[in-house]
Structure formats: C-alpha cells, structure tokens
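Question (not urgent): is this output format expected?
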Amino acid sequence: MIEDSRTQHPLAKEKQDVVVFIVDDDEAVRESLSWLISSVGHTVKSFDSAQNFLKTFSPGTQGCVLVDVRMPGMSGLDLQRMLVRQPTCMPVIIITGHGDVQMAVRAMKDGAFDFVEKPFNDQVILDLVHGALEECHRRSAQKAEHMRVLNRMDTLTPREREVLELIIEGETNKEIAYALDISDKTVEAHRARVMEKLQARSLADLVKKITELGQYQGKP
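Got this back:
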C-alpha cells in the first residue's frame, strides 16, 4: 500500500524550487521514476547521461539526485564524486543493480546519501527521496548559519580575533592576558564582545560555531 505517500510532501509545498534530478540511461526507468516522484508534488528533471545533467546543473540548486551507478561515459560513481566536491547541498541516491551493491556501498563511503537496488519498491523510493530532501534542507540551513557566522566574524576587531583564536585553543583568561600582554579585565571585556557579536550563548556554543565553521571551510 502506497496511497498514504501519494499526498504532497511538505517540502514540496515549502520549496517549489526544489528539484529531484533523475540521471539514468534507461528511458523506462526515467519515465517510471519521474511519474512516481512528481505524483507527490515534487518538480522532476530527468537526464539520459551524467554529461547532459552537468550541462544544466547549478551548484546553488536545492534538491537531490538519483543516479544509476552504471552508465556509458561518466558513471554514477564519477558523478557522485564530482558533486561531493561542489559547494552544493545536493544529496545523491545511487541506483544499483543486484551485482553492483559493493559499488554503491563504496559510493556511500565517498559521501552518497543512500542507495536503492533494482527492481525498486515505490514506497522505498519515495522514502529515500523525502529523506534526501530533508537532508538537503538541513545542509542548506547549516550553510546559511555558517554564512551568518562569517559575516559576524567580519565585525570583530583584530584584537578580538586574537582573543577568539586563543579561546578556541583552550587558553584561560589569565593565559590569554599573558600572551597578549593585557589585563585579565581587558580579556574579559574582549571575550564578552566576541560572544555578543557571534551570538554565542555559552563558551561551548562559541567553540561549536567556530569548529563547525572551520569544517565548512575545509580547515582541520
């Protein structure tokens, strides 16, 4: 029974610009998936090759990609690896045949969202797509928060940045005061302004924001 899943998904209502991309060289598969996914209100675009998909794809697009693991030219694995390196929130679902499960597992280790094995069940496909779109929404919100933190970082003075760096390194107020040759009270004042500007609720929240920002920017 899949009737309950055929109602319009909340993300389809909230995000009309969200797109589910289908990349498969099998026309029957493309048509079947397009009909199924569009039946719950999602915008669907399908392509017969990874190359044709890349010609129109924009990294700023929100949604998810279902891609066959084996295709002529660029494979689904190659496309998935390329998308992982792009500044995009686009989760990738790998479509695999019975003999390609190990390849799909490897793709997940490389960053794919999940995989589905042919022949697929309609409900499984819809659940995976809905999960991938929710993951895209989460990543997009996280990226927006990172951008807000970056903008707030721009408001810090050079001295406040120095204090912040030492806080992240785990230095105490006294150690920071000694390192910067300033008083403990001055450190406390800088620290308070840093917390206020970055809208950190606590020291732990401040460290979390900066640590996640470093990961977002690809820093160790």
